[in-house]
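Raw record, unedited: ATP-binding protein
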Amino acid sequence: MHSFQKKYIITGAPGTGKTTTINLLKKTMSCMDEVSRKVILEEQKNNRNGMPWGDIKRFSNLVYNATSQELLTSDAIICDRSLLDLEAYLVIENKTIPNYLRNFSYQDTYHKTVFFAPTWFDIYCQDGQRLQEFDYCLKLEKALLKQYKNKGFEVVMLPKVSPLKRSKFILEFI
């Protein structure tokens, strides 16, 4: 098992360039991939409904369990999203936030600084695991910002520039 170190978070609504930026950062540091997409792919492969637009409670449980395990064993410096994102998804669906999220030790797990990729119509595209309409992404963005600020995180907005420039921005900041 690795010694635990706090992770930096890159978050934002779907289709904002988070994963593309993280893939560039992987060339210089260890990064944790987005667990949500892995869960969605597995659910689709097995004809199950644990997705943000389906059974969001199942989705939240699956993502929480997989992320918790990965956080314990990963030496990653940066995470593609965090467990707090689940709270934002649940809030916009008017679902109760489960105790395992409400009581999660966010401040002990993640750095206080969060990098936020804003919604960006020019780069947004749907795919097989990103079915949300752009308007939904705007609602989720507001919920994400509110959740992070309410938990005491300092949100640093990523500029709407190329993934390479974004990755350099993050590396200089860190």
